[in-house]
Amino acid sequence: MELRSILPKVSRPRTPMSRRVIATAAGTVALLITLVVALRPAPVPVDLAAVTRGPLRVTVDEEGKTRVKDVFVVAAPVSGKLRRSPFDPGDSVVKDETVIAVIEPAAPLFLDVRTRTEAEAQVAAAEAAVTLAAAEVRQAESEVAWATSELKRAEALALSSTVPERTLERARLELDKQRASLARANANLEVRRSELATANAHLIGPERVSGTPSTSPQCCVEVRAPQSGQVLRELQESERVVLAGSPLFEIGNAADLDVMVELLSSDAVRVSPGAEATIESTGLETPIRARVRLIEPAGFTKVSALGIEELRVRVFLDLETPADVWKRLGHDYRVFARITVWNSLDALRVPLSALFRRGDGWAVYCMEGGKAALTLVDVGHRNSDFAEALSGLKPQDVVVLHPGDRIVAGTRISRRASEAP
């Protein structure tokens, strides 16, 4: 038997070559780990927000304008020359006392050649008619004088019974007839003289009218304020000729304001009378509380700034905030109205920017274990900031805002550095 088989095996000490192999293997493993870590995709930085419970208000938002509830438009009752008014917008007036406008007769129109020739011919005809009527008067006066003398002779003869009583009665009748003819002739002369005056009046032109206005109160028409309040607008500032019905002033109580909003018809059907509203963008420090008073039953067509025809409906809102807050507002001031159509004090709110369409429904990406998890959500009411989550989410869930195309289910995500607490 050989001695090597009897002696126990003794491990040989490792040679430098074997230590180099181990070191090389370890370095290779470390390098592989480093490469895996280096080549692993970095988490996508995202904006995150938490799902919370709180108040949620859905509104219909639209520009509007303030409006005096009862505006009285004062119009010219007659055509004529309007004198310059001493009243300016903002001046106070008293009902049935303040004379806000005075209208005097306007100058006659110019006559063209044909009209003047016709008027002169009418004057000549009227003068001839007056001459004829005067001659008829003189004839009637002569006949009255003759009938008077005949009656005197008949009366003298009747006293001596020379003529019968019938002759005396006929003489009296003839005198009455001639007196009636004289009266008719005098009346006809007055008519002809009036016609002559009318014909002469047709020849009057603006060159024959004095430029000095009459101071007689009978010459002019005074227009008084129909309601107490302030002058809102002076529609005819300077002296000018106006036609009957021309608007002169707008008068109203500037402290009695409401707001008019022209809503799209599709938005108007969502609004109910009595709905709460907020008036903003007035330039005041605080918003103004308001309430819907009236929704007009008829709409109208309005062309938008883009040239699109829109069907709109006027909605009127009463201001509920004390007048001391909005007393600096006036008639036709621009405002922005938010009318409440739905309101909840304890709704599960998810930021609207976290939602995106998934088929026919809505979905969000939630952050779970540093990764994006796709979650389907049932959405109820929503406004410009939040949506009501009916199912799929619970309070304090963290959702990704504005998810881009880099985000899919399972993508590693991290809070954006600018948002890190």
Structural write-up:
With 421 residues, the chain is α+β, with helices and mostly antiparallel strands. It folds into three domains: 52-66 and 255-419, Efflux pump adaptor protein, beta barrel domain (Elongation Factor Tu (Ef-tu), domain 3, Beta Barrel); 70-107 and 211-252, RNA polymerase II/Efflux pump adaptor protein, barrel-sandwich hybrid domain (OB fold (Dihydrolipoamide Acetyltransferase, E2P)), CATH 2.40.50; 113-208, Helix Hairpins. It is built from six helices and 22 strands. The strands form four sheets. Strands 2-11-15-13-12-16 form a six-stranded antiparallel barrel. Strands 3-10-8-5 form a four-stranded antiparallel β-sheet, with no helix packed on it. A four-stranded antiparallel β-sheet has the order 7-6-4-9, with no helix packed on it. It is rod-shaped and about 195 Å long. The two termini are 81 Å apart. The model has no long low-confidence stretch (mean pLDDT 87).
Give a brief outline of the structure.
This protein is an alpha+beta fold.
Strand and helix order: HHEEEEEEHHEEEEEHEEEEHEEEEEEE
Q: Report the CATH C-level class of the largest domain.
A: Mainly Beta
Helix content: 25-40%
Shape: rod-shaped
Distance N terminus to C terminus?
Answer: 81 Å
Computed CA radius of gyration, to the nearest angstrom: 52 Å
Quote the CATH topology of the largest domain. Elongation Factor Tu (Ef-tu), domain 3
CATH superfamily of the largest domain: Efflux pump adaptor protein, beta barrel domain
Determine the strand fraction and express it as a percent band. Answer: 35-45%
Number of strands: 22
Give me the CATH architecture of the largest domain, please: Beta Barrel
Mean pLDDT: 87
Strand order in space, largest sheet: 2-11-15-13-12-16
Helix tally? 6
